[in-house]
Automatic annotation (TrEMBL):
The modification N6-(pyridoxal phosphate)lysine is found at K197. This is Phosphoserine aminotransferase. L-glutamate binds at R43. The lineage of its organism: Bacteria, Bacillati, Bacillota, Bacilli, Bacillales. Binds 1 pyridoxal phosphate per subunit.
Length: 362
């Protein structure tokens, strides 16, 4: 095999090499069945045990919270932007959306198509360079839920501490930071994440929620869009993305092998510190986009003195084997996505390149 790229893609993103190799080893012949997992019925015992194992691993990583269920859905986090208000935002109720960046804006825009939405907070005045503090968030007592984006993948800002929404259910998009650190699931009514950043390949969306939120009857919406349909059918109402779920199960096994969520957090903090220290100690050659206290452990966004220099950085880094460092086209700059599966050595190599580039261009 050739050398693995230094993969800083924002999503789909790096997967653990161990997971890819395990999948390769059982790709053609799955557990003595004479076929691959992609070729077997999703109603058979072999597939179902993988499906159930993945759900069990998720709840185990969260400390077996009582009253929470896991669903595997399709259509990405973007479909959750619509399903959440369709199921949870009844006529006559309001939902609060914390406007913290590009993904929060997309979520709110979809919810407005369905129901009554208010901005519970906004950091747009600071160009989305920070997350709002607890006392900036307006929690209306009778709100159906308050929605936050745990990590803004494009701007590179992340909640260090989640807001307390009292009796109002907190609903959160964790697409780009699920399982990057321990998670107190009891603070949330519902969390959701497309798998392709921190959990596996694209194709499956993980929803973890209080059973009472998932079981609400929503007779006015099509069957396939109701959480209750997927809850009562163990996410097997229709054909699930079986290979993606298998890969999620293997990625979860890998997280367990890293020492669980505490283990991955320690590794993630070491990688993020290395990068942020390099930025902070560059004498102003590099500047971090996110404000202190909101810096993301997963997406490190930074700028150089001019767009010309940024272009040169993107180009030269590519030539040297670094992939995906260009910032999102909507904000420019540079971004290193350092999800769980990005090895420390990739970050160490990037830091070396950054030092060298600064020396040559400073
Ligand atoms: C990538 C991303 C999404 C979109 O996910 P899809 O699965 O492509 O729909 C939504 N929210 C956040 C925070 C993301 O990072």
């Amino acid at each position: 095999m050739g050398k693995r790229a230094y993969n800083f893609n924002a999503g789909p993103a790096a997967l653990p090499l161990e997971v890819l190799e395990r999948a390769q080893a059982e790709f053609v012949e799955f557990q003595g069945t004479g076929m691959s997992i992609m070729e077997m019925s999703h109603r058979g015992a072999v597939y179902e045990s993988v499906h159930n194992e993945a759900q069990e691993r998720i709840l185990k990583l969260l400390g077996q919270p009582s009253g929470y269920k896991t669903l595997f859905l399709q259509g990405g986090a973007s479909t959750q932007f619509a399903m959440i208000p369709m199921n949870l935002l009844a006529a006559g109720r309001q939902a609060g959306y914390v406007m913290s960046g590009s993904w929060a804006s997309k979520a709110a825009k979809e919810a407005k198509l369905i129901g009554d939405v208010y901005a519970a907070a906004s950091t747009e005045g600071d160009k989305f360079t920070r997350m709002p503090a607890q006392d900036e968030i307006e929690i209306r007592e009778d709100a159906a839920y308050v929605h936050i984006t745990s990590n803004e993948t494009i701007e590179g800002v992340q909640f260090a501490q989640y807001p307390d929404t009292g009796s109002v259910p907190l609903v959160a998009d964790l697409s780009s930071d699920i399982f990057c650190r321990p998670l107190e699931i009891e603070k949330f009514g519902m969390i959701y994440a497309g798998a392709q950043k921190n959990l596996g390949p694209s194709g499956v969306t993980v929803v973890i929620a209080k059973e009472e939120l998932l079981s609400a009857e929503a007779k006015h919406i099509p069957t396939v869009f109701r959480y209750s349909t997927h809850l009562s059918n163990n996410s097997l109402y229709n054909t699930p993305p079986s290979f993606s779920i298998y890969m999620v199960n293997e990625t979860l096994r890998w997280i367990e092998e890293q020492g669980g969520l505490e283990g991955v957090e320690a590794k993630n903090r070491a990688k993020a510190n290395l990068l942020y220290d390099t930025i902070d100690n560059s004498g102003g050659f590099y500047s971090g986009v996110a404000q202190a206290g909101s810096r993301s452990l997963m997406n490190v966004t930074f700028r150089l003195g001019s767009e010309e220099l940024e272009k040169a950085f993107a180009k030269e880094s590519e030539q040297q084997g670094f992939v995906g460092l260009k910032g999102h086209r909507s904000v420019g700059g540079l971004r290193a996505s350092i999800y769980n599966a990005v090895p420390h050595e990739s970050v160490a190599a990037l830091v070396d390149f950054m030092g060298d580039f600064a020396k040559r261009n400073g």
